[in-house]
Amino acid sequence: MAFLKKWGKSMFEPEIFLHCVRLVLGGLCAFAAILLCAKKRSAAVVCLVAFVLTFYASAVYKILRSLGIVLENQAALFGVPALDLAFEALPLVFLLLAIIFFIVKKR
Q1: Which residues contact 94 (CB under 8 A, 6 or more apart)?
Q2: What is the pLDDT of residue 98?
Q3: Within a 10 A sphere around the Cβ of 55, how many other Cβ atoms?
Q4: pTM of the predicted protein model
């Protein structure tokens, strides 16, 4: 694989490949979630779509942070940057709400 070497560093980086896989699969999930929301509009489905979209936005944000495009913001809560906290908590809140709505709907 000597032809992949350029300036002493490999052009194929495993981290870049993982970022690409994460973006492609996340994009497909977001597209499918939007299609689901167009077919069925209940509170549980809307929360599920919100979960998928915020999860994808979180993945994009993490990639941009790891590449150094988005810098750490100044606002922090207990030493944790506010955007990091929001992107960690919001998808789980939406998933929790979706599960609660699905459970309530079944009764």
Answers
A1: 47, 48, 50, 51, 54
A2: 92
A3: 20
A4: 0.77
